[in-house]
Amino acid sequence: NQADVVIARFGEKYKQWNTAMDASAAIAMNKPTIIIRPESLIHPLKELSNKANVTVETVDQALEVLAYIYE
Description:
Elements lengths: L5 E4 L7 H12 L4 E4 L9 H6 L2 E3 L2 H12 L1
Parallel strand pairs: 1-2, 2-3
């Protein structure tokens, strides 16, 4: 509830159900949401990515988005 922006990071090696639930909750609360996921997870995360404000593939890209938002 207190976050200004939510960043959800997904990776190849993990089943990140908690991350998906947290990202879904943030989206439901209309929190700006950035999803970081590798290219190989485009299809499994397509519904979540479609609802997020931004989806990127690397942490550096997420930082660029944040820098753009706050500048």
